[in-house]
Design goal:
The protein is α+β, with helices and mostly antiparallel strands. The protein has a domain of 90 residues. The protein has a 5-stranded antiparallel beta sheet with strand order 1-2-3-4-5, with helices on one face. The model has no long low-confidence stretch (mean pLDDT 86).
Length: 156
C-alpha cells in the first residue's frame, strides 16, 4: 500500500511539474495578433496602365477626356477652351465633368485661347496618389512628392 501511495504521489508531482512548466511557458510568449489587413494590389485597367491605384486611374482617365476634348475644341474653333464649361459636348466631356471634385482628387483648369493648364491634385498625397499636370502639349506629368508641373516626369 505504501508503494502504491508513493507511486500515486510521484504521478501527482510529475503532473504538477508539467502543468507549471506549461503555465510559465504560456506567460513568456507574447500574444500573437493577426496580421493587419492589406489593401488588395492595384489591378491595371489596360496594358501599360501607369496608375498605381484605382484613384489614380480615375484621375488619369479624367485628364485624358479633358485633353481629347481640348484637342477637338481647338480643331473646331481654332483656339483652346478657356473654361471647363466650354468643353461640354466636345468629345465625351459632359456637364457633370465640370465639377472639380473628382473623388480623391481635385481638378484645376486655367485656360487661355492659346494655352491651358490642367492639374489633378490628390486630397492626400502618398505612394498611391500622385499629383498630375498637363498643358497644351497634351503630355501628362506626374509627381509623388509635390504638385506636378511641366518639369515633372512624363507619365508613360
Amino acid at each position: 500500500m505504501i508503494v502504491g501511495m508513493k507511486r500515486s504521489t510521484q504521478l501527482w508531482v510529475a503532473l504538477a511539474v508539467i502543468v507549471s512548466a506549461c503555465t510559465l511557458s504560456a506567460q513568456d510568449t507574447a500574444p500573437v495578433s493577426p496580421p493587419a489587413p492589406q489593401a488588395p494590389a492595384y489591378q491595371p485597367k489596360f496594358p501599360g496602365d501607369p496608375a498605381r491605384s484605382d484613384s489614380e486611374a480615375a484621375a488619369l482617365a479624367y485628364m485624358r477626356v479633358v485633353l481629347r476634348a481640348q484637342r477637338q475644341f481647338n480643331k473646331q474653333y481654332d483656339h483652346f477652351a478657356t473654361t471647363l464649361a466650354e468643353l461640354v459636348h466636345s468629345g465625351s466631356f459632359t456637364k457633370r465633368m465640370v465639377n472639380p471634385d473628382r473623388g480623391d482628387y481635385t481638378a484645376d483648369f486655367k485656360g487661355k485661347k492659346d494655352s491651358f493648364v490642367l492639374t489633378m491634385t490628390p486630397k492626400n498625397m502618398d505612394a498611391q496618389h500622385r499629383s498630375f499636370y498637363a498643358e497644351e502639349d497634351f503630355k501628362i506629368h506626374a509627381d509623388d512628392s509635390k504638385p506636378a508641373d511641366s518639369s515633372s516626369p512624363v507619365v508613360k
